[in-house]
Amino acid sequence: MERFSKRQSPRIGSMVEVEEEREIALVTTWKLSNLMLHDSVSLLGLEDQLECIDSKLREIVHLGHLNWSKSLKEIAYDIEEVVDVLVIKASQKIGAGILMRCVLAFTDLIEKYKLCRKLEHIKVDLFELRKLYFSRFAWWRLSKKDLDVGETVISPVIRRVTSIISDGDVTPAVKKQARWLRDEFISLHGFLKAIEVNGLTEGGEAWMEEVYDALRLAEDAIGLFLYEREKLRRTWTGPLKNLALALRKFLSERKLGKEMHKIKAKIQDISVRKLSAIQRRPMRVPIDIVRPMRVPIDIVRPTPYNSFNVDEQPDIPIFDDDIDDIMEMLLRDDPNCLTISIVGMRGIGKTSLAKLIFENHAIINHFPYRVWVPSASMDSLLEQIAREEYEMMAVKYKKRTSTSMDRNDFLYRSRQILNASLKSKKYLIVIDDECRESLWNELGVAVGDLSNGTRILFTARKVGLTPQLSDRNFTYRLQLRSDDESWALFTHSLNKDIPLELLKLRREILRRCGGLPLMIKELAGLLSNKAATTEEWSRVLEQLNQNEGPWYEILYGINRHLPLYLRRCLFYFVLFPEDFEVPARRLIGLWVAEGLGRQKGDQEPPECVSEKCLIELVNQNMIQVTKKKMNGKISRCRLPDALRVHWLPKAREANFLQDNMGINLSMNNTSLIRRLADHLDHKDASFDHIHGNRISSSVYSSYRNVVSFLSFDTQEGSRAGEDVENFLERCISSGSFYFLWVLDLENVYKPKLPKAVGQLTRLRYLGLRSTYMETLPVFIDKLLNLQSLDLKRTCINTVPNSIWKMQNLRQLFLDESFCIMFVPQQEDSSLVDLQTLWGALVDETSPVRNGLGRLSKLTKLGLKCKSSVSSQNEAMSSQLVAVANWVTKMKHLQYLRLKSFDESGLPWDLYLESLLDHKDLCSLYLVGRLKNQHLVSEFPSNLIELTLSASEIAKDPMQTLDKLPNLRILKLLSRSFTGKKMLSRSDGFAKLEILKFWELEALEEWNVEEGALCSLKDLEIRSCRNLKMLPDGLKLIRTLRELKLTRQPELSARIRDNQGEDWNKISHARHIYIED
Predict the structure, then answer these.
(1) By mean pLDDT, which of 73-77, 534-538, 1036-1040, 1064-1068 is the weakest?
(2) What is the pLDDT of residue 171?
(3) Buried b (16+ CB within 10 A) or exposed e, 1007-1045
(4) What strand order describes the sheet that includes 455-460?
(5) Domain extent at residue 615
(6) Which of 438, 553, 619, 787 might form a disulfide with 764, Cβ 3.0–4.6 angstroms?
């Protein structure tokens, strides 16, 4: 079998390569034709030869696949060289004087002689190719499915290579190498499409990692070349400029040529083995999927819904958000018949959620008729809705001959009965079973013309088993439960008190269950019958993942159907410790740093694309969201334990992550270590290298190909920082880490970065969050390729002026509590691609007008404006005006946090003009006295989240803010409103879900009209001591889910013990919390 594979693969591979070379030749014919049509380009009398070559090349291209001794690609490159020479000669004559034209005319004679000979050789080669024509054949049919992984990792490299080809100053030899790389990468791009259709073999993941290696090498080498070329053009001046440029150009091109030669060798090796990475699937025979409908011989009555024990469902808030979201769609004011499909893996709670909705009081009141259908068939549906008519028709049908005409007539009559029954009654129909496409089609015909508000709710394990999305068909993706929800379900299902000594197992229980309700309830059932001891519970937990159980479908989906770009995203979770909750912010930063998240044409920032990738993994139940932000976005997440057990070996087989279990890292070890994660585990082979002292220096050369190093050493004291310093020093001095893109030391206490880190010029991500470093090393000015620099929760107080040179920097996180200062901008430098600037300090001397004010592409801005001394108040006011003008110019802002304090740390003046033109602004946080009191009426309509503090607004802001159509979160904090009365008007705040009043000391009365705050879910009132009673209108807000009163003694007394004057106003709320 092995010999057969080796004998067959090259032949198949050669046919694919022939098609690729034909595409390259087609591009060359276009370039040649364009050259001959260009009047401004002198062809030096070579017109006849060029036309002949153009004709023969087109003929060969259209003949088909050839077998040749010299590749068509090489001939195409030779022709492109001729085209380049002629174009360059033409550009040199533009604006040339008489003397220069004479010199060029003489060189034209020499060049014509050289080109003439070259063209003759090309004609001979083309003639030889033409004789070797034979008929073409196809290997496989490629799907037209768009493949994101190609756009993510290959297309950016192709664009960089193309920029070298189009550079007129680059020599023909280097251009030829660049063309070869370009075309090979284009070929790989196409091959990845075939992999997406057919799938990867067992060794395919490792082959893919080699592809990524080659792409990283190319991106690094070409990026460095282009950067140095541009730097030379900007910095060199004076009479020696041309001489210096020529020398540096020669050296840089020589270096690039060597690098491209290495990359070429690597690509050739990869291409030879590419067919071993793709699965060869047999041709599928079309199957007639149309089956005759089941004829009801004996009518089987489905179990009615009332036989299900709804009381068994936990009365806990694990489905609160899901219930609200689905009910919003069910109760929508739309007369058309709408379908909602609840989609999720087995055991995630689809049926439980559907039951809770089915029995909800609002649903009961809204739908006069409700039907629970446990079997997805037209028979079951008709039995529930029109039993008598259906039974009569079934009996009649049994007496007739079962011909095709009879079956069609039966289906037609069934639809008529269903339509007639539903037309006059508003139903909620729940179909708790997997549906076939035939049932959707039948239902679609039967309910398509309904206009009485009927709704159909499906449950399904995957999207392919649901009605196709449309303006009437919706899909709701049920996600794994958060840690808080999981623990609430576990304690409820356990049905007994947990001893204090067992609470230490909480984290382990949550990790093992992975947020899956079925696993949580099964584990609770197992533990409820065991002795409540640490030993007994730990033993049960160890055995929990012996059976993949409900995770089987997810594992199958990952292995067979998950797209390549999402598989790669999933790999990154194994870099983190098994019980680690991964911050979404950190994960997305890593993805972007390693080139994920990019798409064709850069239509969206890579951070946005990466966030969508994470959401997709969450929706497919592959990732558990352990904690969410108030606005619903993902805060922290993890790979469920059952999936991690399966996926970690896959990552090691693919050489994505080093195998730390006992491997021998040495110079003789041929396996590549691409990513290194220090989990502070003594069993890891790298532990001694990082934390040991007496290690041979030869060991560290094993890390020469590492692209990412993450440390999770959270030990207290200085040991962790010293170990990092020693390890980095040893690796870099041994020639390792030079390809490092990611250095993430988040939570490592005061790491000491050696001077050698300045040599890591390819570094893109430097994570120093929560390290409490006190100074930023001076060599930071060498790391000019940084894309993300995270200094939040550090003790650094000054950003070096070299920060302005980092042209690729996209994310800059600072710590506002340590007042990190910006130094003035250097001339001819700016952070042109900066997207996020968070935590910066602005004082009287900060470079706002001639520095920060030039950053116009920001989407996230967080500033703390603070005066240093009272004598500088006038200068500080001028700075605040400059900040306001800067904000006005930033039209792409999405998140804005702006704080203003005086020299003593008390809120001070805040200058802002109208924000109506900031269409993308969705989150706004303002601390300070608004000098423009009309600003509250000049917020953009797309605003979703608003926080005001110390604004000192005298006029009731609720009657202005209630006009914002998309506002969902409103927090009015200390001294934001100084008046005594507030009114929430009817129909105001249509979408507001979260409302918080904190320390509004002057507030005495709050009234809520009928119809106001119709979507409110969470209400918190804290330290509003003069507010004596809750508004009567709260009892009309049936959506209220949670009420929290903090340090409100009078209000608390009015509802305590489920009685009092205000209890009837909020008794319908699901959860009420009182804190003193």
Answers:
(1) 73-77
(2) 81
(3) ebbeebbbbbbbbbbbebbebeebbebbbbbebbbbbbb
(4) 369-373, 427-431, 455-460, 338-343, 473-477
(5) 564-640
(6) 787
